[in-house]
Design goal:
Layout lengths: L1 H11 L3 H8 L16 H10 L6 H22 L4 H33 L4 E2 L2 H6 L3 E5 L2 E10 L18 E8 L3 H5 L10 H8 L3 E3 L5 E3 L2 H13 L2
Helix pairs in contact: 1-5, 3-5, 5-9
């Protein structure tokens, strides 16, 4: 639970509104990125393995420093001008960053429910179709975090030809737009449907900066089911 609290403290400080204003209009680097410059492996290493909770700007600086030669080789290969590419790349990486740190938070919450060292998360698992994997009392649970949204910024569903063992479980979260939280009621005084649906969902909570994350309730029912089946 201590790690969950530390990570939530970090998430609450993320300037989501500022990042969205800065990056949402920028769609310059939208092509598939080669594996040797994708940020996913580094994200898991920094935030899950090393437990370094960097803000996005600091993470991006480290990302550029680690992959700078491969990044520049890719830019030259696709013949994109330097100014355009390096304006578009941070926006592209930010979208991945925001998605992955939500998954990582879910992993920390799952571990607080199932127990220490029950959760595994890595780029390898990600490529095989699991955002994170829980091993609990002989069962293997492969969790996939899926965001309900009409935004293009949502990561595409994973497709894999190399399946892994275990049960696959989707955990879904819906993020109503900021307008619904600023003005949650209709003219007749009733709550608007997206807002009403969100506040009734006890598996999700929203921080003041707009970050939506999972609560322990997301995982507690499955744990109880497994515990009950082994009695």
């Amino acid at each position: 639970m201590i790690l969950v609290e530390k990570f939530e403290k970090f998430l609450k400080l993320v300037d989501l509104v500022g990042y969205r204003e800065r990056y949402r209009p920028i769609k310059l680097v939208e092509m598939d990125l080669p594996k040797d410059i994708q940020a996913i492996e580094m994200l898991y290493k920094v935030y899950w393995d090393n437990k370094k909770f960097l803000n996005y700007d600091d993470f991006y600086k480290e990302y550029l420093n680690v992959y700078k030669e491969n990044i520049e080789s890719f830019r030259i290969k696709i013949t994109m001008c330097k100014n355009c590419f390096y304006r578009g790349l941070p926006a592209r990486i930010y979208r991945t960053w925001a998605s992955i740190i939500t998954q990582i938070h879910a992993g920390y919450v799952a571990e607080s429910v199932f127990g220490e060292n029950t959760v595994d998360m890595s780029a390898e698992l990600d490529h095989k179709g699991a955002d994170f994997q829980v091993k609990y009392r002989g069962r293997v649970l492969n969790y996939q975090v899926k965001k309900k949204s009409f935004s293009r910024e949502v990561r595409q569903e994973k497709k894999t030809s190399n399946p892994i063992v275990g049960e696959f479980i989707d955990i879904k979260y819906e993020v109503p737009s900021e307008d619904y939280f600023k003005n949650p009621k209709k003219k007749n005084g009733e709550y608007k449907l997206p807002y009403s649906r969100f506040i009734k969902n006890k598996e999700l909570k929203r921080f003041l900066n707009g970050f939506v994350v999972f609560t322990p309730m997301t995982f507690e029912a499955k744990k109880k089911e497994i515990d009950k089946s082994l009695k």
